[in-house]
Specification:
By secondary structure, the chain is of the alpha/beta class. The chain has five helices and seven strands. Helix 3 (about 95-110) packs parallel to helix 4 (about 130-150). The two termini are about 15 Å apart.
C-alpha cells in the first residue's frame, strides 16, 4: 500500500527489513545498544560486526532518541537505532516516547541528507505496545514529519507479518480517509 504525502511516498510492505535498499533502515534498539531479539537481532546478524562496533563506541541511546551507524553488510548504507518505550499500560508517557522515536529517526535521516528510510513496528513486539495504537502513533509521526519537511522522499514501514501489516494498513486508511 502506498500513499503520497506532499512530495513523498509513504509505503507499507510486508517483509524483512534487513532486505531493504533504502538509504537507512531503523532498528528497534535497546538503550544499551547491545543487540537483542526480534528486529534488533536480525539487523545485527545480517549487518555484521561493524554495526555493533559502532554501537559500542556510542554506548547508549535514551528511550525516544536515535543514533546512527554504518549499515555494515546490509543493502542500506546506514542503520538508525532508536529506542521505543516498553508499554506499561499507556500512563507512563509511552505515546510521547514512541512518537519521539519516529520523529528523532526522521530528523537524523534529514540531518544526514538521506532521502529514504525504512521502519519496523517499533515497540510493538517484545516491548508490548498494542499493535493498533503503535500503528496510529507511527503513521501519524511520519505523516506529520513529511508534511513539514520535503527532504525525505520515501518512508517505508516494513512489517514482518500479515497481522502487523493489516494493523498498519487499517490505521493508515483511518488517517488519510
Amino acid at each position: 500500500m502506498e500513499v503520497k504525502i506532499d512530495k513523498a511516498i509513504l509505503a507499507l510492505v510486508q517483509g524483512d527489513i534487513t532486505d531493504e535498499e533504502t538509504d537507512a533502515i531503523v532498528n528497534a534498539a535497546n538503550e544499551g545498544l547491545r543487540g537483542g531479539a526480534g528486529v534488533d537481532g536480525a539487523i545485527h546478524s545480517a549487518g555484521g560486526p561493524a554495526i555493533m562496533a559502532e554501537c559500542r563506541k556510542i554506548g547508549y541511546c535514551p528511550t525516544g532518541q536515535a543514533v546512527i551507524t554504518t549499515g555494515g553488510n546490509l543493502r542500506a548504507r546506514y542503520v538508525i537505532h532508536t529506542v521505543g518505550p516498553v508499554y506499561r499500560g499507556g500512563t507512563k508517557g509511552e505515546e510521547a516516547l514512541l512518537r519521539s522515536a519516529y520523529k528523532e529517526s526522521l530528523k537524523l535521516a534529514s540531518e544526514k541528507g538521506l532521502k529514504s528510510i525504512s521502519f519496523p513496528a517499533i515497540s510493538a513486539g517484545v516491548y508490548g505496545y498494542p499493535l493498533a495504537e503503535a500503528a496510529r502513533v507511527a503513521l501519524t509521526a511520519a505523516i506529520d514529519y513529511l508534511r513539514e519537511h520535503d527532504d525525505i522522499t520515501m518512508v517505508r514501514f516494513v512489517l514482518y507479518n500479515r497481522g502487523t501489516y493489516d494493523a498498519f494498513s487499517g490505521a493508515l486508511k483511518k488517517l488519510i480517509g
